[in-house]
Amino acid sequence: MWNLNEKVEQKMREQIHGGDIYRNRDVIDFSVNSNPLGPPKSVLETIREQAGKIVHYPDILCSELRDAIGWFEGVDSEQILCGNGAAELFFSAVLAVKPEHALLIAPTFAEYEKALNVVDAQIDYYELKEEQQFQVQKDILEQITSDVDIMFLCNPNNPTGQLMSKEMIRDILMKCRECDTWLVLDECFIDFLDCPEMYEVKELICEYENLLIVKAFTKVFCMPGLRLGYAMSDNRKLLRKMALVLQPWNVSILAQAGGIAALSGCEEYISKTRQFIKDERLIMIQALEDLGYCVYGSKANYVFFQGKSGLYEQALAAGFLIRDCQNYRGLSEGYYRIAVRTKSENERLIAWLRQL
Q1: For residues 29 and 316, what is the distance between their CA atoms, to the nearest angstrom?
Q2: What is the rounded CA–CA span in Å between residue 165 and residue 167?
Q3: Measured between alpha carbons, how far is 39 from 225 in angstroms, rounded to an integer?
Q4: Quick one: which of 48, 122, 124, 144 has the fewest CB in 10 Å?
Q5: DSSP state of 79
Q6: Is-contact 230 216, C-beta < 8 A?
Q7: What per-residue string of b and e applies to 245-270 under the rule 16 or more CB within 10 Å gives b?
């Protein structure tokens, strides 16, 4: 029989889906797909400068931060809710809506299902197919019915890196509106795209009150340790309900200051990031395909591929932590995801793969 501590530890281990450098020390971490260029220098400088302010409570309304996000996204600050990372906002959306019935695609990010399990929602799955390159097809519309209270989508999807067009998302939104279904759209990786404006749909939040878009500073600004995310919607009632289920002061002073600093003059940083990711991703995809691996999607800052069983363990023994994707619903042993890291780190991983 487990004691309480063992149960808690097991539950915490179940939350680990990448970036576990604490139990895998001295490795090059390809399992977490944050910006390989690191956070903007302005963020690090601001954190040092603002450290003394931790003696105060943070702004519970995140007013200055929301103004900065509003400028960056081109939306009204009143359409923004900040959270302790994107994950907290997925949970708060579920707690606000209290869905009885939900729809997820599979494979996709595991936190959506974990959030839905909190309210014991019945979950249906739209299974992505390997023979269709794990892309969402038009037939997903058939699974959106009046019984579905909420659905989650990720664009680009995690772990596949596949994209849905604006037209596809608009079709889904229209069907969701007809069926009185909420759509939570995760765009955490969209700023890594070569042309994100071709896929992002924030301009639709005023047209569709059933739309909630969630983004985070975790990925493109490489700030996972600060825990900062935000949701955008024109449905003020939903945002108020989400705010009521959040813990007060959930966004720390340092997270707020870091977020504001990241967005200040970020155009050059993001442009440099996109070019670097584009160049290195193409090199990595070509190398993997030359070695006989089957690569799918991979439009963001990570590469999703199928390889031989046991590659995760072999990589770990060689000093590389990659993401074994077999615990994603809809995937089996042999699927992996690797982040685009620095040029030298990418070259080391490719050189090792060539030796296998």
Answers
A1: 10
A2: 5
A3: 11
A4: 48
A5: G
A6: yes
A7: ebeeebbbbbbbbbbbbbbeebeebb
Amino acid at 200: E
State the sign of the Cα–Cα–Cα–Cα dihedral 96, 178, 125, 134: negative
Helices vs strands, H then E, count in the chain: 11, 13
**DSSP SS3 for 280:** helix
Rounded to whole angstroms, the Cα distance separating 29 from 320 reads 6
| SS3 call for 75 | coil
Note the helical H segments in 102-219.
Answer: 111-118, 166-178
Question: Could you report how far apart the first and last alpha carbons of the chain are, in Å?
Answer: 42
Q: Specify burial of residue 275 (Cβ count, 10 A radius: 0-12, 13-18, 19+).
A: exposed
Name the H helices within the chain: 4-14, 41-50, 63-73, 86-97, 111-118, 166-178, 236-245, 253-263, 267-290, 311-317, 343-355
Backbone region of residue 292 per phi and psi (left: phi > 0; alpha: psi in -120 to 50; beta: other values):
left
Give the pLDDT of the chain (356 residues) as one tens digit per residue: 445 555 544 444 444 455 565 666 678 999 999 999 999 999 999 999 999 999 999 999 999 999 999 999 999 999 999 999 999 999 999 999 999 999 999 999 999 999 999 999 999 999 999 999 999 999 999 999 999 999 999 999 999 999 999 999 999 999 999 999 999 999 999 999 999 999 999 999 999 999 999 999 999 999 999 999 999 999 999 999 999 999 999 999 999 999 999 999 999 999 999 999 999 999 999 999 999 999 999 999 999 999 999 999 999 999 999 999 999 999 999 999 999 999 999 999 999 999 99
Locate 66 and state its tokens. Answer: 């929301």
Identity at 70, one-letter amino acid code:
G
